[in-house]
Specification:
Shape: elongated
CATH architecture of the domain at 3-68: Orthogonal Bundle
Number of strands: 0
Length: about 100
């Protein structure tokens, strides 16, 4: 899986565990597709500081997954339930 897609998926699971600043910079970079320079300019903060926070955020997301494994468990469950009837499958997916 592409690293960017993987990080965005982890953000869906663990984004609420991040600080507001980490969420904002991550969203600017990954969702708004802004460059480090653009984020830096928009927020009047050095490019290096933005880079540092984004890397720190990526590492936090990876570490959360390493410890909690919510994303990988969810994928395993989806693989297991794929052959169930639609109604049961949908009920389980709603819980995920």
């Amino acid at each position: 899986m592409d690293k960017t897609l993987y990080l965005v998926n982890l953000y869906d699971y663990y984004g609420e565990l991040l600080t507001e600043k980490q969420r904002e910079y991550f969203e600017d970079y990954y969702f708004q597709n802004l460059s480090l320079s653009e984020i830096s300019e928009n927020r009047n903060i050095s490019r290096n500081a933005i880079h540092k926070v984004i890397k720190e955020t990526e590492n936090k997301l990876l570490n959360y997954e390493k410890i909690l494994k919510q994303y990988s468990k969810s994928n395993e469950i989806k693989e297991i339930i794929k052959d169930l009837d639609e109604e049961t499958k949908n009920k389980i997916e709603d819980l995920l």
